[in-house]
From TrEMBL, chains A, B:
Source species, domain of life: Bacteria
Record keywords, A-Z: Lyase, Pyridoxal phosphate
InterPro entries (UniProt xref): Ser/Thr_Dehydratase, Thr_synthase-like, TrpB-like_PALP, TrpB-like_PALP_sf
GO biological process: isoleucine biosynthetic process; L-serine catabolic process; L-threonine catabolic process; threonine biosynthetic process
Enzyme Commission number(s) from the entry: 4.2.3.1
Protein name (database record): Threonine synthase
Family: Belongs to the threonine synthase family.
Uppermost EC category: lyase
Domain Tryptophan synthase beta chain-like PALP: 77-379
Cofactor names: pyridoxal 5'-phosphate
N6-(pyridoxal phosphate)lysine sites (modified residues): 113
NCBIfam families reported for this sequence: thrC
Amino acid sequence: MVSSCTKYELRCNECGKSYGNVPLSACSECLAPLEVQYDLESVRGRFTRESIAAGPANIWRYKELLPIPEGFQPDLPVGFTPLVRAKNLGKRIGADNLYVKNDAVCFPTLSFKDRVVSVALANAQAFGFTTVGCSSTGNLANSVAAQAARLGLRACILVPSDLEAAKILNTQVYGARLVRIDGNYDHVNRLCTQIADEYNWGFVNVNLRPYYAEGSKTVGYEIAEQLGWRLPDNVVVPMAGGSLIRKIRKAFRELIALGLVEHKNVRFFGAQATGCSPISHAVKEGWDYIEPQRPNTIARSLAIGNPADGPAAAKMIRETGGWAEDVSDVEIVSGIQELAETEGIFTETAGGVTTAVTARLYSHGRISRDETTVVCITGNGLKTTDALEGRFEVERAVKPKLAAFDEYIREVDGSLVGAAQELVLAGGVQ
Amino acid sequence: MVSSCTKYELRCNECGKSYGNVPLSACSECLAPLEVQYDLESVRGRFTRESIAAGPANIWRYKELLPIPEGFQPDLPVGFTPLVRAKNLGKRIGADNLYVKNDAVCFPTLSFKDRVVSVALANAQAFGFTTVGCSSTGNLANSVAAQAARLGLRACILVPSDLEAAKILNTQVYGARLVRIDGNYDHVNRLCTQIADEYNWGFVNVNLRPYYAEGSKTVGYEIAEQLGWRLPDNVVVPMAGGSLIRKIRKAFRELIALGLVEHKNVRFFGAQATGCSPISHAVKEGWDYIEPQRPNTIARSLAIGNPADGPAAAKMIRETGGWAEDVSDVEIVSGIQELAETEGIFTETAGGVTTAVTARLYSHGRISRDETTVVCITGNGLKTTDALEGRFEVERAVKPKLAAFDEYIREVDGSLVGAAQELVLAGGVQ
């Protein structure tokens, strides 16, 4: 598999200054964020439905629109996760055309971060970094640790000290150096900016951020392709830094511009936890700025009190005619259970947020029941089992005897003891 | 998507008696296991490389050779997991052509059991069962609970009472009734046979076992297809009941018979934990029978002391010129770490078994370094984090100040504090 031949470079979002390709995330002139811009015309004809279908069943089928350095051979099969029709959840919340984009099973580390990390590390190698790192609320740490190990890069990963045990283990097991910081994510992130400068390490979400962020577009490409090359009416996206929701929209706009899908104004809905809802608040208030908050929520992967892409995300949401909602910790846990019980998908707290927010958007009439809506589930439930602690009774053990089982079942769940079920043996099954 | 039109039925492996299609797993005449047999000639021409490539990126691309009842519309995108080239692990253990088949990220519940359950439940519905269940060491419980929820079936799941906390939670969260049995897996399984009869429930690995087992063939189909329609020289497979390893071979034989791959005698290597190694022992001793053991190992998903397919698996392994090995609990944990550190894949204890056994097979010269070997990783590490408890130091939290970080890093990992790294900015990255 050869790397993309697409021309791309970093450019300032505000003043338009060009930077070529360097490990830099902010404009030296006006301090605005830098973004990867592509020569779309050089892509036309090379990024088609057919060329994509001929590609592998992972994100690299979209490599023409990813910042892949020349000579880089992507061989890790990241992404291209299931898009499932959510009929049962839809019945419960009054949604007839509901889909779940399920990054809870993303390869290799069960969150959408695998996408952004694979793109960032491709560039880290090209820039000559031998040590990479990140500031993380958990999923990013897992992904950087795993992918760096496979690429033979050293990894030094900084996290808030109260990170869930599973996420800490799921980072250390790959041999990465994990550093717990006595502070919240915003403290960690600030420190990483300083470390990146002093140590010359490639921090995927600091000095490699513009490249890293592009990986999120693949969620958008996949949604469009898996819906049969059409765009949904709505997308519901959890917001931490505010980058993912913007990149999904960027992906849709690129597909429209290149003629792979018909034009449609997709409405974007942001989901946050009430205990850390700076962007949701800005959307509801109609602000163009973010009022930072001190995070206080079990949804720790969304616990970014001062989100880098916050103002831009709020603005974009309103532009598309979307909205944002935030939900309590109690609703988050209910959301996790609801998705599990209806669709058999076990998501982490961020997914509980997104599910609960989706339900609210429908019940408040912000989305009509017949609209096609994709709910972005970004991480796996096994990463935040703490949130469900004590929620389920672990009952007494039963002796391995039929009589003991009979007695137990009558005691705990009489409804399971029905009249003998009639078996439909339709003259042999076929 | 329409269901398979392939004719199939249950037949006794020993006396050949036919049963049509019924929820039955043993022959009433000679008590041998029943197996699904296909009219392969009716499949020829409909199961081709092209027809498969045109199918979806999941196990249903192989539906022509799966027992799918007429009228069943598979819509859950199970399987088609990554097959990754394991260069780093290979370097460490002296294997030049090593691959990992990674079911640790299988959809929906992160183990290969998702494959067998989806096929079993398709048949459960056709037989009219409204409650399904299983006896399980964990992964099967998760999968039945999740998939039953999505299909609207009740689920009653029985497990040994000492099952890992994550596996218990990852079953209850879907709304399934989980019953802890005061005994080991073999006790649980025996009890389930009695319950299946009395309650008329569809136990996927008891009365639906022949259909369930066929789902494992998809591991073999995928390996062959992902290697470019060729068979490997060797496959290393963990063994609990002994079914998976046999079904992978069945899949390879079907592909050869139907002309999708060239004939090759693939060698099969079974992997067990020394603390529960009845099949490995039988292979090493050259026995045609199993001497049951009382399991005592952290690899609880392989803790089946009296494996149903044990004798047949041992016989098959020797027929192919393969071998079996078993490893200690210490080696299992090292195996988990080794796979994580080299390939960025975090597997559960069963995967640690398989990785450690693979290393031993190469170091003992049973597999030569240039041979193509696929290592089957069957479940995710987040399910057995208990096994790694205490293995990694959770160090003190560091103040969010650069000076504090500097001091900390010098103290714990001086090698990370190198001379400023030279960045290779190759005249812009492209």
